[in-house]
Amino acid sequence: QKEVEQNSGPLSVPEGAIASLNCTYSDRGSQSFFWYRQYSGKSPELIMSIYSNGDKEDGRFTAQLNKASQYVSLLIRDSQPSDSATYLCAVTRGGSNYKLTFGKGTLLTVNP
Amino acid sequence: EAGVAQSPRYKIIEKRQSVAFWCNPISGHATLYWYQQILGQGPKLLIQFQNNGVVDDSQLPKDRFSAERLKGVDSTLKIQPAKLEDSAVYLCASSFLVEQFFGPGTRLTVL
Fold first, then answer.
1. Strand ranges in B1-111 using DSSP code E only, listed in sequence order
2. Please, which pLDDT band fits residue A96 given cuts at 50, 70 and 90?
């Protein structure tokens, strides 16, 4: 069974710090990787996509992918209380079926 | 650009009753997905449509769940009869290519 593993947390960081969220996946055929943010009682919101090894930066967010190690991470710089949410890692093989397999999510709390 | 629309937002039913959820994807998105998210878990794919054809329904409990996407736009997911363990949020998502965008979801409570 193909799995996506995340630390459930909660991960607590002070305001202004860097939050580091990690994800490992078991399917070596995975091609596309996503981070979703989910506020309590809301639906998942896509915040980052990454498709090749290395880093991808978008504002305060940096996604890192290492396919050899089957590892994806999300760094949030200058964390704000509004970043407090559950972060879901999702992967897909791609091809004709873009079915996403999600981890259980990591709850991040940013303390003022 | 309007996002994915879903209704109702909340539904409370008793076990063995039936329920239906509706989804309207983002305009131009050919692929539509239904996910089930149980509290504390990540979303789990139930069924994927490409236009009005089913691409993947391997995790759909077909004895009680059914879904259709007539005319390749709107979709309906039905549960009949509902069980207690069906209490969850039902999320609809759509995509043009790889990136999927979610609607607000329907929170189902089965008593």
1. 5-7, 10-13, 19-24, 31-37, 44-50, 53-56, 65-68, 75-79, 88-95, 100-102, 106-110
2. low
